[in-house]
Amino acid sequence: MERTKLSKVTKTPDQFVLLSVVEMASMIRNAIIALPFQTGSLTLLVTCTFSFATTNVPRWCLFASEAEDAPAVWCHDSADLEEVSALLAKGLPPQALAAAPLPISAGQANEDRRAPQVVVAQPGVLPQPAVFDQASFDIFCKRLVDVNSGMFAEGSFYWFLMQEFNRYQRTKLGFGIVLLSPCASLTEADSLTHTRDEVIAWLGNLAVVEVRKLDYICHFNGLIGMVLANSSLEESETCAQRIIEIANTRNNSQRFDAGFAPHAGVAGMPQTCEHPGILIAAAQQSLNQAISANVPVQVFR
Question: Which of the four CATH numbers 3.30.70.270, 3.30.300.20, 3.10.180.10, 3.40.630.180 does domain 137-299 have?
Answer without folding.
Answer: 3.30.70.270
